[in-house]
Amino acid sequence: MSEPRAGASLGTRIFVGTAIVLLAALATAVVVTSVLGERIAVRDARERIAASASVQAATQQQRFQQLGLLAEIMASKPEFKAYLIDAIQTHDRLSILDQLDERKSELGYDLALVVDSNGILAARTDQPEVSGVDLSDRALIRQVKSEFEASGVWADRGRLYEAVAVPMSLDQGVFGFLALGYAIGDVRALEVKRGTGSETIFVADATGGAIASSMTPQETERALGALRGQGDLLARAVSRGEDAVGAELRLGDGRWLAQLSPLRDAAKKPVGAVIALVSLDRALEGYVEVRNVLLAVGGAALLAALLLSFVLSKRVSRPIGELVRATTAAREGRYDVTIPPGGSGEVLTLANSFNALLAELRERREMAEYVEKLARNLPDAAAARGAAAAAEPPVSRELTLLAVELRHLARPRPGTDPKAAFERLSRDLGRVAAVVAAHAGRIESVTGARALASFAGAGRTESAIAAASDLFGVLGVVEHAFEEAELPALALAGGEVLSGGVRWGEEGGSTLLGLALQQLDALLREAGEGEAALAPAAQGELAGAFERAGVSVTSRRGLLSTQSFFLLSAEQAARVASATGRMLTHVTGLEPELGGEKLTLAGIGPGSLLGSRFEVLSVLGAGGMGIVYKARDRELDDLVALKMLQRDVAGDKALVARLKTELKLARKITHPNVLRTFDFGEVDGHPFISMEYVRGITLRAMLEQSGQLTFTAAFWLARQLLSGLAAAHALDILHRDIKPENVLLDSGGNLKLMDFGLARPVQRLEPGQTQAGWIVGTPHYLAPEQIEGREPDKRADVYACGVVLFELFTGRLPFGGDGAMDVLLQHLKEAPPRPRDLRPELSPALESLLLRCLAKSPAERPGDAGELLAELERAAAG
Predict the structure, then answer these.
(1) Which of 40, 574, 695, 799 is an S-S bond match for 469, by CB 3.0 to 4.6 Å?
(2) How far apart are CA 217 and CA 225, in angstroms?
(3) Same domain? 639 vs 780
C-alpha cells in the first residue's frame, strides 16, 4: 500500500488561498469599476453634450433679448427715427450707414440693416454698397412685417448672424424696420465651450466648411470629414432641420460623441447647424485612474500576502472585499452599508471616498422620501388645505367677519351665458381674495356668490372696513362699455368666534361657530347693492374713525329681522376707511381704466395685465412687503413670481433705492440653491420685483408637516442652504432675512433660498413700546446687532442660519415666548439651550458649531456662510 503523497503545507495553502482570494477580489473590483466607469463616463459625456445644446440655445435666446433691447432703444429715439425716415424717402444710403456705424461701436452689434415699410433694403452695414434690394421674402423681414417682432438666424453669403428685427414708426404709422445682429464666429463657439467644456463648431451648409469653431482648423476639418463620412448626418440637421442628431466618431486615435442641432431663421427653417463634440477618452480618464489605483492597491496587497502571515494578509484584503460588497450593494440601491476603516494609502483613500459617496446617496434617498410624502399633497392643494383644516384644534378667538355677496352673480338674468358668468365670478372672487390678503385677512369660505373673510389681531375691525371700502372700488368697476356698475352687498360683525376642524366621512375642513355668523346672515338681507351693514359692536369699534371722517349714521331696525344695525354707503365706507389709515393707495396703469376709475393694488387679480407684459394667473401670498402673484411673462413666455410692493414700502424712497441696489447685486447670484431674481421695475411709479417661479413648498411647511427631521435630511438641507448663501456672501451680498419661510423646496427636494435684500430695516424697540408702524422683522431669526439697530454684516446672516440649523437638527427654535418683545429680549440676553439636551445623538462638534453661530457677539461667530459650511462638513464627518 503506497503512502499518500505529501501535500503542500498549511502555511503554503493559507498563503496560496490568501493570494487567490486577493486576486479574485482585485479582479472583481477592477471589473466592476471598469464597467461602472465606462457607463458613467458615457452618460456624463451625453449629459455634457446635451448641456452644450441647452447652453447654446439659452445663450442664443439671451443674445436675441439683448439685440431686441438694443433695437428697441434705437428705434424709440425720435431724432434717430426722424433722420431715418427722411433718408429712406430720399434714398440717402450713406446717411443711414453713418447713423448705423456711429452706433455700432457703442452698442456692439455686428450687423445692422434698415428696410422701408415694403421690405426694400435702404442700407446694411455688412454690404455698404448694396441698397434697393427686395428683402420682403426673407424670413426675418417677413415675420416682423406681419407680427411686429422677429428673431432668428440670418444667413447671407456663407455667414450667420443671430438677428432681431423691430418696426420703426411715427404717428402716421410704420415707415420701416430695423434689424440688428451678432455674428456667429469663433468667439461665440469658445463661449459655448467655456460654459460646458464641449468643443463647438458652427456650419452654414452640409457641404461647406465651418464658419466658427472652438477647435484648431486641422481638428475642425477632421471632425467635419468624419461627419460627412456618416452619410447624410450633416444634411439631416442643416437641410432637414432634425433636432439632436447624434453620432459616435473616431478622430485619430480617440472616440468622440457628436450632436448636431439646427440653427433656424425667423420662420423656424434650418439655415445652418451647431455641432457639439465631447471626447469619450477624456471622460474616461478619471475612471481609468480609479482602475489603476485599484490595481496598485491589489498589487500591494498581493505582495504583502507573499511576505506576511495569513493574519496580516487577511487584514490587508478585508478593505478590498468590503469595497466590492459596498459597490455591489450601491448598484442594487442599498446605501446603508459602510466600509470599515482599515488598510492604508490608496485603499484607505478609496474607502473614504466610497463612504462619502454612499453617505451622499443616503442623504439624497432620505430627502427624496420626505419630498415624496409632501409632494403627494401638492397637485391637490384644496385637499391638502382640507386635511390641514380638519386637524385644526378648536379654539375661541376674537374675530371681525366680513361677508361679501356678489348680488349681480347670485341672481343671474335669464339667458345668461353660464361660462361667462363663472369666468366673471372667478375673476371677482380672485379680487376679493387679493383685497383680503392685502389687509392681512383670511378667506374662510366661499358659498355660491358669497365669500366670508375673517380678520384677527389688533385693529382687525379697521382692517375689515378698509377691505370693504377697497372691495367697493374694485368690484364696482365695469369690464366693458355695455355693462352697468353693480356693487356688492357687504356686512361686518365681530365678537367671540369658535373655530376648528370638522370631518364628514373621509373629507374634512374648518368651520366657524358664533353669534357673529348669524348676525352676518341677517345683515346681508338688510344691505343693498353698494351698501355695508355693520353690527352695533363693529360700529362701536370704529366710532373714532366715524368721528374723524365726519360720518354720522344712526342705528336702524331691520325690515326682515328685529336686529339693529348701521348702514353705510360705498362713499361713507371709503371715508371711514380712509380715517383708519389702512386703505391701499391707488396704483395707476396696472390695468385699463374701467368706468373712469383705476384699480388699486389689491384689485390686481387673476386676469389682470400689468404693464402690457405680465398676465396675473393667481395670488401666491401676501406679507409685510407686498403681495406675491403668479404671472406669465408674455415677453419671455415664461412663468414668474411677481412681488408688488405695499404702499408704505413704495413710499419709502430710501428703502426703494436700497432695494434697487441690492437686487441689482442679487441678480448676479447664479447658484442652483438660490431663487433667481430677474428684474426690479416700476409700473406708473409703483415698484415690483420679478423672480423665478418654483412650484413647491416652504421649509416652514415641511417642518410643520414632518416634525423633527432625521440627521441625514437635516444635514442635506443645511448644506444646500449654506451653499446658496455662501455664493451670495462670495459676492458681498447679504440676505438679511434668513428664515424657513424664505426657503423653498421643489418637487425634487432641491432647496432654493429666496427674497435676497428684501428684509426691511429693523428699528429698535424699547420694552413696553407699542407705537404703530415700527418694524420688528422676524423676531425668531434676528441677530442681536439687528435688534439693537446696528448695521448688519455677513455674520448677521450666519446668526439667522444658526437659528434655522438649530431648528433643523433639534426640531425646535432656540428662543420662544409669549410675544415678539419676549423673544427679542432672549436673543439679546439669554443663552440658547444646549442642542444635545434636546437631541442627545448630535455630536459635540455639531453642538459647539450651533452654539457658536448663536453667539451674541458677531466676532465669535463664523465669518460668513462659506466658513460655516466648511465647519459643518467637518462636524458632520466627525
Answers:
(1) 574
(2) 12
(3) no
Work out the angle between the directed axes of helices 280-307 and 10-76 (0-180°, nearest 10).
Answer: 160
Q: Alpha carbon of 400 to those of 406, 537, 635, 759: distances in Å?
A: 20, 10, 42, 30
DSSP E strands in 686-736: the ranges are 686-692, 696-698
Residues pairing with 645 in the sheet: 626
- Model's pTM, two decimal places? 0.45
Give CA–CA dist 454/433, Å, rounded.
Answer: 11
Q: What are phi and psi of 366, to 5 degrees?
A: -65, -40
C-alpha distances in Å from residue 632, one per residue of 589, 637, 643, 785: 18, 7, 13, 40
CA distances from 328 to 38, 333, 652 (A): 16, 9, 62
| 684 and 701 fall within a common domain | no
* CATH for 634: 3.30.200.20
Residue 259 lies in a domain: no
DSSP-assigned letter for residue 491: E
Question: Hey, is 275 helix, strand or coil?
Answer: strand
The phi, psi pair for 793, rounded to 5°, reads: -130, -165
Query: Which of 453, 488, 484, 442 is CA-nearest to residue 469?
Result: 488
Residues 546 and 665 in one domain: no
Q: What residues are annotated to the active site?
A: 737
* CA dihedral of residues 725, 731, 735, 740 (deg, nearest 10): -10
Would residue 500 count as lying in a domain? yes
φ, ψ of residue 722 in degrees (nearest 5): -70, -30
- The total domain count for the chain is 4
Give yes or no: residues 790 and 725 share one domain. yes
Helix (H, G, I), strand (E, B) or coil at 587: coil
* Residue 762 and residue 778 in contact, taking contact as beta carbons nearer than 8 Å: no
The 10 Å Cβ neighbour count of residue 647 is 18
Asked if residue 782 and residue 682 are part of one domain, the reply reads no
Mark which of 374, 395, 424 sits at the end of a domain.
374
Give me the helix-helix angle, 10-76 and 186-196, nearest 10°: 140
Cell representation of residue 644: 408688488
Mean pLDDT per segment of 10 residues, for the chain of length 878 residues? Answer: 44 60 74 78 82 85 91 87 85 88 87 91 91 91 89 90 91 87 91 86 84 90 88 87 86 85 92 89 76 72 64 60 73 68 66 73 68 52 48 81 88 80 84 81 88 88 90 73 72 90 74 88 88 91 89 82 86 88 43 34 65 81 71 88 73 74 80 88 75 86 78 89 94 90 83 75 42 52 91 94 95 84 90 94 94 96 95 84
Q: Which of 718, 868, 869, 870 is nearest to 795 (CA)?
A: 868
What's the pLDDT at 304?
67
Grid cell digits, residue 132: 434697393
Virtual torsion, Cα 840, 843, 849, 855, nearest 10 deg:
30
Report the run of H or E that residue 847 belongs to, with start and end.
helix 844-853
Relative orientation angle of helices 10-76 and 78-89, to the nearest 10 degrees: 70
Whether residues 614 and 629 fall in one domain: yes
CB-hemisphere CA count at 13 Å for 670?
A: 1
User: E strands within 570-693?
Assistant: 609-610, 614-622, 626-633, 638-645, 677-683, 686-692
Does residue 442 sit in the same domain as residue 360? no
Spatial distance between the Cα atoms of 155 and 137, rounded to a whole number of angstroms: 13
Q: What is the pLDDT of residue 114?
A: 92
Exposed, middle or buried: residue 656 (CB in 10 Å: 0-12, 13-18, 19+)?
Answer: middle
Domain boundary among 564, 581, 598: 581
Categorise residue 360: left if φ over 0, alpha if ψ from -120 to 50, beta otherwise: alpha
> Rounded to an integer, what distance in angstroms lies between the CA atom of residue 605 and that of residue 625?
18
**Cell 326682515 sits on residue:** 560
- Give the cell for residue 25: 477580489
Is residue 94 domain-resident? no
Cell of 171: 404717428
- Say which CATH number the domain at 788 has: 1.10.510.10
User: What is the pLDDT at residue 582?
Assistant: 62
* Domain boundaries, position 307: 10-40+294-374
Q: Which residues pair with 688 in a beta bridge?
A: 644, 681
